[in-house]
Amino acid sequence: MTVETATYINGLNATYPAASDPKSEGDDHLRLIKSTVKASFPNVAGAVAASDVELGYVAGATSALQTQLNAKAPLASPAFTGTPTAPTAAAGTSTTQVATTAHVAASILASSGITAVLPGQTGNAGKYLSTDGSNANWVPTPFDTALALLGNSRNQFYAASSTFTVPSGVSSIRAYAFGAGGAGAAGVASTASGGGGGGGGCAYGDIAVAGGQTVTITISGSSTTVAIGATTYLTANAGSAASGGTGGSGGTASKDVSVTGGGAYTGGAGGSGGNNSTGGGGGASGSPVGTGGAGGACVAAGVGSCSGAGGGWGGAGSAGTTSQYNGGGGVGGAGSTNAGGGSGGAASSSVAGVGRGLNNLFSDPILRPLTGFGGLAAGNFGAISLPQPGGGGVNSAGAFGGGGGGSLSTGYASLFGGGASGGTASSSPSASAGGANNYAGGGGGGGQYNTSVASGGAGGGGAVFILY
């Protein structure tokens, strides 16, 4: 007897029944086949339409197929997890296909004109990337106002002689040297008011250096220099003091031939005092804009006459007139009656000089933050709108690079570089002093009224900026 025992199809023996088995055992074989088929396919209640190939697709499945399919993201609004990837389209492709991070980066670089290869990064920490349309380079971080250099560890400001050690990895520094401003003259009793002092010269540019070198900064009353070893790279001479009613002349400047990307500019002349009561304005220092603006000359007489305004980096201060404020020159142009020059242009009568938009910024790092309007007087004796960075004042101090505004009572200085306004005769029989400056600009001339005279303002001291 050769009838085997089996529960499922795989337990059947294909060699049974043997040829010698009796026919009476045939029913046992049939019942065994039927029982193993039913046990192997207990849930088949109808025709199975799948072919052997289709049934083979489930080979290797380790759990319920529907459960596995449910775990996949749907075609409509899929929510991926992990780090999904996709083919990267060519830069500039603009279709509904998926954009990878590589495509976005390539498209940004292509649209900006910057190549994917960055300039050398050693020694350029804290700088940002700029391009001239063909070449990319690192430039110093812009600052909200140029005096913010005082608090920036990578940009150094010096108001006295000192040394600077070049950090490791730095191969170039950009330096600015400003000469001291000349003092304004005192008024001369019953003769003349004082003239304004001349602005200091300015020399600047890029100097090749090596880490560990010592840069020597020398600031004196006569000149400001930047040197390494025996080579003096930048020289900015002081403006001359005014003498009586005659304004001082601007200081000259020079740079070594190895200094690149810069210039050397003379300071502006101080305005004259003349035979009346109001002092002349101080001249502005030279700057990356060019020769400093001249101080306003005194053209009016008597109590209530407005003093001459200080010159700005880009234009002259307005001259003294009666019962009107005179605007200091701004970085972008001259001051006018009741309005100061702005960073973007000159003032006109009672219309402040304009500022600069983001699409019209200066390219020079020290000028780039100077974007403001000039000061404005709302009527002859109305409220005063103070100047913004780069603007000249009106009956107020000038902003960075702008001249002090003319006043009916006293002289005003500039935050940096601009000339101070002159003093005047604010009331009979007294006179007020000319404005004194902090850095580089000329002092304002002193006022006089008959036998009452006032002192001229001190000129600003020399200064050096180093950017790297």
Describe what this molecule looks like in 3D.
This protein has 468 residues and is mainly beta. It folds into two domains: 1-39, no CATH class; 122-132 and 140-468, no CATH class. The protein is 8% helix and 15% strand. The chain is built from four helices and 16 strands. The protein has helices at residues 26-40, 52-56, 65-70, 101-112, and strands spanning 128-131, 136-139, 155-158, 162-165, 172-178, 202-208, 214-219, 223-228, 231-237, 253-255, 260-265, 376-377, 384-385, 448-449, 452-453, 463-467. A five-stranded antiparallel sheet has the order 3-16-5-6-11, with no helix packed on it. Strands 4-7-8-9-10 form a five-stranded antiparallel sheet, with no helix packed on it. A two-stranded antiparallel ribbon has the order 1-2. Strand 12 (376-377) and strand 13 (384-385) form a beta hairpin. The longest helix is centred in the first third of the chain and has 15 residues, at 26-40. The model is unreliable at 140-151 (pLDDT under 50).
